[in-house]
Amino acid sequence: MVTGMIIRSKERLPIVTSDTEVEYPILPLMTGVLFPGMTLTVQVGRPENIELVEKCSLEKQEFVASYAHSEVDTPGPAPIHQVGVFAVIVDIKEGPQGSKIVTLEGHKRASINNIVSSEPYLSGTVYAIETPQYLLKNIKPKMDSVIAVAGEITHLDPIYSPELSNVLKMSIEDPSALADKVASSFHFSLASKQELLEAVSLDIRYERLIQFLNNELNRVATVLNINENVRKRIEEEQHRAFLRQQLFEIKRQLGEEFTEEKEAARFRNMIKSSPQLPAEVIARAKIEIDRLSDLSPASAEYGTTKSYLDWILNLPWGKYVPETYDLASVERIIATDYYGPNTLKEQILQRISVRKLMSGVDEGPTLCLVGAPGTGKAALAKAIARALGKEFVRMSVGGVSDVQELKGSARTWLGAAPGKVMRTLRTVGTADPVVLLEDIDYFNIDNNSSVNMALLDVIDTRRNDRFLDRYLGIPFNLNRVFFICSVRAYEEIPEQFVPRLEIIELPGYIEREKIVIAKRYMIPKLLKKHGLVRSEFKVNEKTLTKIITNYTQEAGLLGFSQQIEKICRKMALEKADHKKKAWHISERNLDSYLGTPLFIPEKAEKQPEIGTAAGLAWTGAGGELMFIEGIKMRGEGQIITTGSLGEVMRESIQAAHSYVRSKADMLGIDSNDFRDFDIHIHFPSGAIPKDGPSAGVTVSLVIASVMSERPIRNDVAMTGEVTLRGRVLPVAGIKEKVSAAYRAGITHIVLPRENEKDLKELPREIVRKTNFSFVERVDELFEICLLSVTPSAHSLQKIFAREMARARRRKSRRNHVRPAAARSRKRK
User: Fold this and answer.
1) Per-residue pLDDT for 272 more than 80?
2) CA-to-CA separations, 383 to 380, 388, 519, in angstroms, rounded
3) 585 in the same domain as 552
4) What is the DSSP letter of 344?
5) Nearest to 27 by CA among 126, 125, 127, 122
6) Which whole number is the average pLDDT over 365-392?
7) What whole-number distance in Å separates Cα of residue 772 and Cα of residue 750?
8) Helix ranges restricted to H, 19-124
9) Mean pLDDT in the chain?
């Protein structure tokens, strides 16, 4: 425990008390522990301590020397231990930089009670510690054990004088002096020496002393064992070197060549035949070749050195494809190999034109293709590589969680190898390929920032011109590598990557686009893959449409491709068994190839209904038709929402309700109805979470229909966000949403006015066959979709009575018992 500036002893101290407290100067010792009857030479540098030793030396005054210890460096003096030693100065000399070299002699143990003053030097009240009482017969075995262990240490370790053992035996009559002399003479830690100083009881002191001596003996034995092993290893290496030199001389006289010399000559020839090698690589290779020629082929170091030379001399240093491509041919190849938006292709061409003007270097952000699986990310990257005439390689970084996987491990490690980037470039053979980095969303799951920064060192054009692989130890220029990242969604990109990536979103394909891609790319490729011929396979667009709508639910083409593969495999089986030679896949026989349909597409309602409207939604699988339902019931004017709705959608419903309530007079709704009736809004497919503001116009229409009791047209679908003042704001995913409505047979679509420009992305066939209405306010939507005539109460009673009559007739027919003859004829 530390009290003030004193570290109190944990031992019980037998103090010699007196009537008057005596004040002594206190000298803190930072580099040693002084024991009674022993001398210690220290260097004193602090001004206050120099003044203390000068005064005590001049006046022959006794003072207390105590070990001062601090766990951390502090600007002030370190705390001192309570137990010290009364000491006098034997000798004092001048030291470097104004310090003093002082030799101290200890007399007996002392206990520091309190610190009285720190000016001009440290001083305090001190009591002497009584000399411990002992029985020689009890302590004699421990003394013999100490002398024996000390003798072994001095015999084994040349650091200790051989006479030390004899010197210790001279103090055999005084157990306390013997223990102190051993503690002072051997190389214990200062903390251990302080423990021995504080151990006033001889039993405790000798127990600790034996423990520390045994630890020192173990250390000495370990060091001797290591030294002996090193000596033997050196002798063996010298012997082997001598034998190798003899063997070399024998083979030289016989005219034979050495394997190591042949390998060294091979590497030297590789350097001469590679003029593009950087100076750094040549210098390092020459050093390693010289080492290789001096090593034995049987040594482990020979193998690691040879492997390292293979790596650095086989990497594509300075091997670049000339940037001689024509932009018109690049545009044509990309348009041929990839089916997608023209704006996306134009963005790619802009980046390629910069590379052409800068001789293959583009210091802009790295391209990142964002899109659902099957949207053509790999196809686009491959098209870019073919257009540029460069090698294309796909490199997955999914599951990478260690820097070593990207930047390699140091050569000193067992099984060291370069990182994944260098291994890829060696396989490709050029220093400027098109590299598609896939599975970025599965990269570094633990989110270790050092791993993220390691990948940034690879793809960031600002700093990858001197990329350093830990195994190679030589910078490699990566700024001419065309890196392209791919990820499924923007939200899954690691945060550190976002500022250094140029995001290119690949939209999902609508039904018509999937059919075109299937005919142009997918079906010919799959037929060739399964050993089939195009003339043997016939399928029409309606069949492909049924596969897309009934067997897949995705934005891309992955599932669509898998379904066609199933058909191809069944065809291949029948062809291999010589059962058939041609196949016509139609809507009728499609089930025999793919089984029962997995999905049932939404269809438009057969007639207008109150409280049911067709909304358009965008999902990760593309556009969907979503029927929003509403009813009113007696209550307190509350809004009830169901269907796994998110917070944004709930707020959109509340805004739509408030607007419709504000337009009650225009819609012919009694304002009291909003207070007397509850409204329940339900979104079907309750297991699927839904969110977003684009259902605002549909919800407004449903609420207006329910409260005004006017049916909604069943041939209209809509999408758009609604503000509190009734304005209709634009939304995203128009192409997918319109395609979903067209697929469901709805030919009239209401869109926000600002989304009119998005019709350019739609196929001409859909635009030609669909009637579009563009609105700026919800009032316009009400005029388009709400029917002005509702069934009267009398008409409803007539319909109800007619349906009840039909039900009674059906029931009477079921209960009528026919004659036995009629029943027998029926059985026949």
Assistant:
1) yes
2) 5, 9, 18
3) yes
4) H
5) 122
6) 92
7) 6
8) 47-59
9) 85
Q: Could you give the CA distance from residue 520 to residue 336 in angstroms, rounded to a whole number?
A: 10
- What is the chain's percent helix, strand, coil content, to nearest 5? 50, 20, 35
Q: What is the mean pLDDT of residues 529-533?
A: 90
Q: Of 474, 454, 458, 459, nearest to 403 (Cα)?
A: 454
272 is catalytic: no
Q: How confident is the model at residue 808 (pLDDT cuts 50, 70, 90)?
A: low
Element holding 507 (H helix, E strand): none
Residues 6+ apart with CB under 8 A from 614: 604, 605, 625, 626, 627, 698, 714, 716, 717, 718, 741, 744, 746
In a domain, 600, yes or no: no
Number of domains in the chain: 6
Comparison of pLDDT for 260 and 484, the residue scoring more: 484
Same domain, 705 and 799: no
pLDDT surpassing 80 at residue 623 = no
The pair phi, psi for residue 353, each rounded to 5°, is -65, -35
Q: Is 570 a catalytic residue?
A: no
DSSP state of 694: T
Flag the least confident range among 171-180, 418-427, 588-597: 171-180
pLDDT in tens, 116-138: 888 888 999 998 888 777 766 77
Is residue 516 located within the same domain as residue 495?
no
Q: Are residues 656 and 775 in the same domain?
A: yes
Q: What is the DSSP letter of 521?
A: I
Contacts of 808 (CB under 8 A, 6+ apart): none
- Clarify whether residues 680 and 799 are in a common domain: no
Sign of the torsion formed by the C-alpha atoms of 314, 318, 324 and 330: positive
Q: Is the pLDDT of residue 360 over 90?
A: no
Q: Of 377, 420, 514, 737, which residue is the catalytic one?
A: 737
Is 616 in the same domain as 757?
yes
The tokens of 617 are what? 């939604």
Query: Is residue 506 predicted with pLDDT exceeding 80?
Result: yes
- pLDDT class of 802 with cuts at 50, 70, 90: low
Strand order in the sheet with 366-370: 392-396, 434-438, 482-487, 366-370, 501-505
**CB atoms inside a 10 Å sphere around CB 533:** 11
Angle at 547 between CA 544 and CA 548, to 5 degrees: 90
Q: Answer whether residue 528 shows pLDDT above 50.
A: yes
Considering only 303-307, 661-665, 762-766, which range has the smallest mean pLDDT? 762-766
Annotate 479-494 with b (16+ C-beta within 10 A) or e (fewer). bbbbbbbbbbeeeebb
pLDDT of residue 570 exceeding 50: yes
- Least confident span in 428-442, 483-497, 536-550, 785-799: 785-799
Which among 111, 184, 192, 694 is annotated as catalytic?
Answer: 694
Q: Where does a domain end: 489, 505, 521?
A: 505
Report DSSP letters for 560-593, one per residue: HHHHHHHHHHHHHHHHHTTS-S-EEE-TTTHHHH
| pLDDT reported for residue 567 | 92
Quick check: 585 pLDDT over 70? yes
Q: What is the pLDDT of residue 797?
A: 45
DSSP 3-state of 769: helix
The per-residue pLDDT for 501 is 92
- Is 486 contained in some domain? yes
Between CA 283 and CA 457 the distance in angstroms is 25
Within this chain, do residues 422 and 534 fall inside the same structural domain, yes or no? no
β-strand partners of 494: none
**Domain enclosing residue 549, as ranges:** 511-594
CB 384 within 8 A of CB 484: yes
